[in-house]
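Page 37, top half.
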Amino acid sequence: MIATEKIASQPLTPYATRSDFCQIFERDMNSLYLLSFLLTGDQSPAERCFVRGLDDSTKGNTVFKEWAQSWARRRIIQNAIQMLRPKPTDHSVGGAPSDRTAVHAMIPAEMGGIVELPAFERFVFVMSVLEHYSDQECSLLLGSTRADVFGARTRALRQIGDKAESHRTLVSSNSNEALADKSKSAIHLEAISRPAVLA
């Protein structure tokens, strides 16, 4: 009898409700969509991935409230994997070149390098570097080996580093050209504003 009363007096386990997940997807919409986009590399599948993540999250899963946000992100990742099925031998990138150009205009330059990675490298980079999944977790979710994950991350970091370096060089070059143009303009302005010397 005492044991029954003790169990009855304990608070119910605080599981996340459908409403909790709706609030998470509304509050963190930009962050969750960005995760979808970086994984899929294209707008259309990113939107489908996001919507499926919301749908999955509101189907009465028994998840503790404090885990609900990370669970929602995990569902986004799992949906993206199911949609694209990235493999270590897959060297395709997200979207058509024209689509990527249009999208790059809307995202920071450093994210453009992620989108241009081959699919498997992109997934590994996002999952391990940005989402902090272990190599073991990545290999299980992606159906690959830890060696594949390690190699893909190394290649991704190298490619992103190379792109960042070339971007810095381009920006520096453009800055030097702009400075040279400003100097020429200043000299020209000074020349035409200088009073003529009478002979």
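Page 37, bottom half:
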Amino acid sequence: MRAVDVMTNDVISVGDHAAVPAVARLLAERGISAVPVVDDDNRVVGMVSEGDLLHRAEIGTECRRSWWLDMMASTDKLAGDYIKSHSGSVKDIMTRDVISVIETTPLAEIAVLLETHRIKRVPVVRDGRLVGIVSRANLVRALAMTIDEAAVGAEDDDRALRDRLLAELKTQRWAEVSPANVTVKDGVVHLWSSYLSEQEKRALVVAAESIPGVRRVENHMRRVPVRLLI
């Protein structure tokens, strides 16, 4: 699946001329954690999140350092912190280096971006213009949709299911499984392999359960006894 398959099209955004209190009110009323900032051509120029609004003079939460940290901080850093906590313009507090994706970006790549950069949503752009947004909630909904998709594949015959599972296991270095130890009957996968650890056993079961069309997995595996060599 790609960004276009799950993104929210009716995106809540603000103009780059917006006032900070108005953006704070928008986040609170809509129950969202961040909002894209766009220019007059609907091009994404920034992002304002709850984190950008944490340290504000109006509520007494501006950054306060001990005197010796202030002495060590550069004047540029101190001036930047002052602007962030006192300016009433979105242009001054927004994050300018916006992480964005395009409509064809795979969901797996988006998930990595959200996790790596510790953000909750990412704008979707077309030629730089905002066309949608993908949030963590969108990814969760996409996962929920796969329940129905799996049901469609339930008519696959047993041979096709077995071939898919064996192909998946072949790509995994930890999965040393002989094809003879994998059988499928009426959509039920039977695993007869031996295993060295509980993690390996669970991974084999998960791999089988992840194949669309598999009804359930029967575990007949036995653990390999560990012998101490003297």
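Margin note: The two ends are 53 Å apart (CA to CA).
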